[in-house]
Write a structure and sequence with these properties.
The chain has helices at residues 15-18, 23-35, 43-70, 75-106, 114-126, 132-150, 175-191, 193-213, 219-226, 234-263, 289-303, 305-316, 353-372, 378-381, 385-398, 413-446, 453-467, 477-486, 488-492, 498-514, 518-530, 537-544, 552-570; strands at 153-156, 159-162, 320-323, 333-337, 342-349. The model is unreliable at 1-9 (pLDDT under 50). The protein is 64% helix and 4% strand. β4 (333-337) and β5 (342-349) form a beta hairpin. It is globular, with a radius of gyration of 24 Å. The protein is mainly alpha-helical. The strands form 2 sheets. Strands 3-5-4 form a 3-stranded mixed β-sheet, with helices on both faces. The protein has a two-stranded antiparallel sheet with strand order 1-2.
Length: 576
């Protein structure tokens, strides 16, 4: 049933208003704001109504997306998700840009909205009506990718299991078993490579069209504008890649060489990179989702009672879906439900150390949502992703000291040392992975060959060889290529990856600060989260106690501190 015309005297919408809405039900809410009298004296109320509208609509869309990713086999949930992502939201963006233009042209900027206005101006500059159907098509293709990969299963020891359940076997002390697990995980991507490549071909064409329609030379330039990257440019990202090669890769090679020697292997193969180097059985931090959640709540309460209460709120309100199952989309995320000011965490846990780190990461996003929600307007609450990822990656390190079992955490003292060493090594390995993914995306969208599936695969192999030294991939080109098809960001969120590198380096700075003043570091971190998107990116990093790092000397200093800690951990004899 179509909604009647909306007047400003009617109640504000909530997510239920739009749960089953079509675009014609949503449009009148925007149109009322478009024609309402707007003046200096009424701008605050007008912005508040617009903020409430978009909070309600975005939460309705988020709930549909969450329902679908939790069960990609349900056709009704897919249809509901596509109704928002492929129809309502692209059309709502067009009217949002019109409202932004009205506000900007008024020339009245309430306190705390300078950054919001800058982002509005950028959205106005790049918006083209001709891109609405291309954005719609991109969203549809993204859902197709999730449906395809969410259905991937393998036969393992007589059972049909989703891919994330292979994770514990990649840590098996039986080298044959972990090789089998490695090959099994890659196998659906290898088998469906042509389908995934064809899907990406369509995504590439749509993205190229979006960039050209908006007047950009390539999709990389468009993406930097669309993501409001005011404080760095593609050349800075290239400098980041080069700095990782110079300052990080030697340490990565040392990590791999140490692992190879301890395992007593002539060469390190990809299935040797997750097993304990001393041959100890993999740590299993939890067995059930209930245990996982209960222990995490104790961890966060120990880090800070306020964080413990916020996580407890998520548990009580059933805002957690953490363990893997058939039909569930791959990966993990934290989605903010903007109307109620609550986050939702989704992940695919299988009982590994990595699952604990993923939950710490996504909880950092969740705490960011709690901290920034009191800001008056929706657009103030959300910074760009470089700051969002600083919130998440810093929590991985700031919460680490609370993970001992004697303090209510996940690990015995011996397991804690193992987990800490593994996580610090992973901090450096992640920088290498980020550089490769970002460099690959830059190649796709600027080389002129990104529409050629075979050329893409060869470019991935070349770029990966720069950032994956110390591991022998001979005879495994198909499996190595499959890794980029697994990287959902490349399919769903193009150019969303350098953020992990910048934030990872920022998180290492906060970790370094915390070694001498943990309470002060945590307090600065929480104050920075509460700023939402009301400051520039460099100012937000400064508020947290960090800076943006693109240079090799800056990286080298942080790498040296990590290696110093790894050496200290290695001084302890292995616990068998």
């Amino acid at each position: 049933m179509r909604s009647p015309a909306i007047t400003s005297k009617q109640a504000s919408p909530d997510p239920d208003t739009f749960a089953h809405a079509a675009w014609d039900d949503v449009r009148p809410w925007y149109e009322e704001l478009e024609v309402r009298t707007l003046a200096a004296g009424s701008v605050a109320a007008w912005l508040a109504d617009w903020s409430r509208l978009e909070s309600a609509l975005s939460e309705a869309a988020a709930l549909a997306m969450i329902a679908y990713t939790c069960d990609t086999a349900d056709a009704a949930k897919l249809a509901s998700h596509l109704r928002f992502s492929s129809d309502i939201l692209p059309k709502a963006e067009e009217l949002s840009v019109r409202l932004a233009r009205r506000f900007v042209e008024l020339g009245v900027v309430p306190p705390g909205l300078d950054q919001v206005v800058a982002r509005f101006r950028r959205a106005i500059e790049i918006f083209r009506e001709s891109n609405v159907p291309l954005v719609t098509e991109s969203e549809r293709l993204g859902s197709e990718y999730q449906q395809l990969t969410g259905g991937f299963t393998v036969r393992w020891n007589g059972d049909e299991i989703p891919l994330p359940r292979l994770a514990p076997f990649l840590k098996s002390t039986d080298r044959t078993e972990r090789e089998r697990a490695f090959r099994a995980w890659a196998s659906p991507y290898v088998a469906r490579r042509s389908d995934l490549a064809a899907l990406f071909d369509q995504m590439y064409a749509a993205r190229l069209g979006i960039a050209r329609n908006a007047g950009f030379a390539d999709f990389q330039a468009y993406s930097f504008a669309a993501k409001c990257r005011f404080d760095y440019a593609p050349d800075d990202c290239r400098r980041f890649h080069e700095s990782v090669e110079t300052a990080v890769m030697p340490a990565v090679e040392r990590i791999h060489a140490r692992r190879k020697d301890r395992l007593g292997l002539p060469v390190l193969r990809p299935w040797d990179t997750n097993v304990d180097p001393w041959g100890r059985a993999a740590i299993r931090p939890f067995d059930t989702e209930g245990e996982f959640v209960a222990t995490a709540e104790k961890v966060f309460a120990r880090v800070d009672p306020a964080l413990g209460r916020e996580f407890a709120t998520m548990r009580r309100e059933r805002l957690l879906d953490l363990t893997t199952r058939k039909g569930k989309a791959p990966g993990g995320y934290c989605e903010t439900l903007n109307a109620r000011g609550r986050p939702f965490i989704f992940m695919n846990a299988a009982g590994t150390i990595e699952d604990v780190m993923t939950l710490l990461h996504e909880s950092g996003h969740a705490f960011h949502a709690f901290a920034s929600h009191p800001l008056p307007y929706l657009w103030q609450r959300h910074p760009t992703m470089e700051m969002a990822e600083l919130a998440s990656m810093s929590m991985e390190l700031l919460a680490f000291s609370a993970l001992r079992r004697k303090d209510g955490g996940f690990f015995t003292d011996a397991e804690y040392r193992r987990a800490k060493r593994e996580h610090l090594e992973d901090a450096l390995l992640t920088l290498a992975h980020v550089a490769s993914v970002d460099a690959f995306q830059a190649w796709i969208y600027t080389s002129g060959e990104g529409g050629d599936a075979g050329a893409r695969d060869q470019a991935w192999l070349r770029i990966r060889s720069r950032f994956e030294r110390g591991v022998d991939w001979s005879g495994l080109d198909q499996e190595r290529v499959a890794r980029w098809y697994r990287q959902l960001h490349i399919f769903l969120y193009p150019f969303y990856y350098i953020e992990y590198g910048l934030a990872g380096l920022g998180a290492l700075q906060l970790w370094q600060n915390s070694l001498t003043d943990h309470p002060g570091t945590l307090a600065a971190y929480r104050r920075a989260l509460a700023l939402g998107g009301t400051r520039s990116l460099p100012d937000l990093y400064r508020a947290a106690g960090a800076r943006l790092v693109f240079d090799a000397p800056g990286m080298a200093a942080l790498v040296a501190r990590v290696e110093e800690e790894l050496d200290r951990l290695d001084d302890s004899p292995p616990d068998r």
